[in-house]
Amino acid sequence: MMSVSSLCHISTIFFITASINFGTGVKINKLQVPEVIKHGAPVILDCDFTLDDTEEDLVVKWYFNKNKTLVYQWIPALKPQGLGILKDRLNLEYAASVDANSVHRALHILKAVPDLSGDYTCSVSTLQSEDIRTKSMLVFVPEKELLLRRLEAEEGLMRVQCLADGVFPRPVMSLHSQEREIEGTEVTARLRGQLYEVSATATLPALKDPEEFSCELRIPQANYTVRRETVFYPGNKAPLILMDRWLALSPCIFSLYLGLTRQFIGLC
Fold first, then answer.
1. pTM over cut 0.90
2. In terms of C-beta density within 10 A (0-12 exposed, 13-18 middle, 19 or more buried), how is residue 131 classed?
3. Are β-strands 130-140 and 36-38 bridged in parallel, bridged antiparallel, or unpaired?
4. PROSITE patterns, per this entry (predicted)?
5. Which fold has domain 23-139?
6. What is the 3-state secondary structure (H, E, C) of 21-51?
7. Looking at the chain, which residues constitute the CATH 2.60.40.10 domain(s)?
8. Distance from the first to the final alpha carbon of the chain
9. Strand order of the sheet with strand 43-50?
C-alpha cells in the first residue's frame, strides 16, 4: 500500500507537470493608458500581452466607454481597422513590437481631443481563451483666458465676477476675498462645442476700502489649479464694464471717429 507522503509527492509532480503542459492561454501583462493627456498631443495606448503557442485565431479589439463601443480591431495577417470615434484618428501603421502576433496591439491616437476622454478596454482573444482590461483617460484643456472683473450693481452693492473660457473638463470655480467670506456665489457653466465657459458671480456690499479679490479655477482630475488676483477700490466702477463695451464696439466707433475727424479737418 502506498503511503500518504508518497501520494502527496505524486500529486505535486502532477500539478507542476499540468501547469507546464497547459500554460495560461492569453494574458494581458500591462495596459498602458495615461490618466491625463493634454489637448492636441499625440498619445499611445498600449495593450502588452502574451499568449501560448497553442492559441489559435488571435483577435485584438479596443472598446470605448462603458457601453463598450468597438473602436479598433486587428487580426494578424490583416490590416488594423479604426472604427467609430477613432476612425481616421489613428496611425494604423504604428508598430508596438516586432512580434507578428502583437505588432499592432496598440492605439496611436494622432491628436487627443476632449471627446476622446473616457474608458478604454483592450480585449485579446483566441478560440481557447480571452483577457480584458480597462483604464480611463482624460483629455485636459486649460482655459484660454481667466478674467476677474467688477460689474455694474445697484447703489450700495458691488458685483464681482470670475470668467473662464475654453476649458475641459468642467472646472471647479470659486471667489475669495482677503477681508471677508464670500457666500452665495452663483456658478454657471455652458458647454460650447467641446469646451466649457464657466463663470462665478457674487453680489456684495459696496467697498469702503480697497480690497483684494481672487478667483480660483481647479480641475481635480488633472491636478490643475490657477488663480487670478486683483484689487478693487471704493466708488462707482461702471467704467470697467463700459470699457469692455468700448473694446467690443471699438472697430465701428474708431472708424466713425476717423470719419468725423477727417470731415472736421476738411472744414478747417
1. no
2. buried
3. parallel
4. IG_LIKE (PS50835)
5. Immunoglobulin-like (2.60.40)
6. HHCCCCEEEEEECCCEEECCCCEEEEEEEEC
7. 23-139, 145-245
8. 131
9. 27-32, 43-50, 107-109
Query: What nine digits make up the cell of 5?
Result: 507522503
CATH 3.40.50.300 fits 145-245, yes or no: no
Would the pLDDT of 248 be above 90? no
CA R_g for the chain:
31
Provide φ and ψ at 88, rounded to 5°. Answer: 65, 15
Whole-angstrom Cα distance, residue 251 to residue 254? 5
**CA 108 – CA 45 distance, rounded (Å):** 7
Residue 250 has pLDDT above 60, yes or no: no
- Greater confidence (7 vs 178) lies with 178
Predicted confidence (pLDDT) at residue 55 exceeds the cutoff of 60: yes
Give the mean pLDDT of 200-205. 95
Confirm if 93 and 107 have CB atoms less than 8 A apart: no
Long-range contacts of 84-88 (CB under 8 A, 24+ apart): 85/115, 85/116, 86/62, 86/116
What separation in angstroms does the CA of 179 have from each of 5, 70, 231, 232? Answer: 81, 55, 12, 12
Banded pLDDT at 251 (limits 50, 70, 90): very low
What is the rounded CA–CA span in Å between residue 48 and residue 104? 10
Spatial distance between the Cα atoms of 216 and 143, rounded to a whole number of angstroms: 12
Q: Which three cell numbers stand for residue 154?
A: 445697484
The b/e string for 90-120 (b: 16+ C-beta within 10 A; e otherwise) is beeebebeeeebbebbbbbbeebbbebbeeb
